[in-house]
Amino acid sequence: MYGTTMIGTLAAGVTADDVRGELKAWESARQVPGYMSSHVLLGDDGKTIVNVAVFESKEAYVALADDPEQGKWWAEHYAPLLDGEPRWIDGAWVS
Question: Which of 5, 14, 19, 27 could tie 10 with a disulfide, CB 3.0–4.6 Å?
Fold first, then answer.
């Protein structure tokens, strides 16, 4: 398994329901081959967001990351939920 972890800061006024809605919309709209799951943590500080996404393989993840439609979706739907650019960590899941 392979995936990515995004660590960011929520934009002012963004709620857990906003994040949940965008994740559900993405899962419904994109139907990404090799995608297995996502898990989102909202920090106790009310600002920090950690989103992990799990894929069957590195190839499946890279295909999504290189897809211009994904870039467009990100810019229109998820990026506005954040205050600034997030940090990304890609790698293999060990469990």
Answer: 14
